[in-house]
Write a structure and sequence with these properties.
The protein is α/β, with parallel strands linked by helices. It is about 25% helix and about 20% strand. The protein binds guanosine-5'-triphosphate and magnesium ion. It holds the Pfam family Arf.
Length: about 240
């Protein structure tokens, strides 16, 4: 076992996980981090360098490096590859025009030797937008099956701007307005909720990451994963 592997396993035993969050610009990386941390998702601007966010999840400290995805910034991604346990690749599911760019960048990235042991979680973000591609369509468009031989991967649909409203104490959730089909009306979606909880599908993705890297401490078996189904969320207003 190489020295780097020993260091990595020691770090994982201390429940420290290093995650690179990457993807094209405008995909929603920073918004996802803010949603998880319960911050105001209305206040985001393009990331010109990087943000490091620590997310405590299931007893693990996930040190998430949220790095700007603009074309001019992508050559700098390589500066962050060392010691990465997992890559979270965020996709704007409504950006059909750039899906091929997205595929190319992802496959280029994962050729990198320093990322060889890293697990890959794809967030198919912006599922609240009407024309969003489904998980199956995105898996095909990004050619995810071709990555199976080199990386454990999973894909999770989500919406960083869908925040579960935090009901005031005693308030009946039934008071929320709903559409005739039972889905929340757009006002109940609370797309700019400032203290609600993140879309549970985002957290399900983190569960998978933690299960993956955790299993590696014990000489890594593939982590079984059932994605949380795509909830019926109406289009953003
Ligand atoms: N409708 C909708 N909009 C979203 C969602 N996630 C992010 N956005 C919006 O998409 C835009 C870009 O979000 P960012 O989080 O800044 O994207 P990013 O991937 O961090 O972009 P860079 O920092 O430039 O790489 C913002 O206007 C967000 O409000 C989502 O799930 N649904
Ligand atoms: Mg950003």
């Amino acid at each position: 076992m190489g020295l780097l592997t020993i260091i990595r396993k020691a770090r994982l035993k201390e429940k420290q996980v290093r995650i690179l969050m990457l993807g094209l610009d405008n995909a929603g990386k920073t918004t996802i981090c803010k949603a998880i941390l319960g911050e105001d998702v209305d206040e985001v601007s393009p990331t010109l360098g990087f943000n490091i966010r620590t997310i405590v999840h299931q007893g693990y400290s996930l040190n998430v490096w949220d790095i700007g995805g603009q074309t001019s910034l992508r050559p700098y991604w390589r500066n962050y590859f060392e010691q990465t346990d997992a890559v979270i690749w965020v996709v704007d599911s409504s950006d059909r025009a750039r899906m091929e760019d997205c595929r190319r960048e992802l496959h280029e990235l994962l050729k990198e030797e320093r990322l060889m042991g890293a697990s890959l979680l794809v967030y198919a973000n912006k599922q609240d937008i009407g024309n969003a591609m489904t998980v199956d369509e995105i898996s095909t468009a990004l050619d995810l099956p071709a990555l199976t031989s080199s990386h454990h991967w999973s894909i999770q649909p989500c919406s960083a701007r869908y925040v579960v409203p935090s009901a005031p104490p005693g308030a009946a959730s039934a008071a929320q307005p709903t559409n005739p089909n039972g889905t929340p009306a757009s006002s109940a979606l609370n797309l700019s909720n400032r203290c609600g909880k993140a879309d549970p599908r985002i957290l399900a993705g983190l569960d998978w990451v933690v299960g993956e890297v955790g299993s590696r401490v014990y000489y890594g078996t593939q982590n079984a994963f059932t994605p949380v189904p795509d909830a019926p969320i109406p289009a953003a207003p």
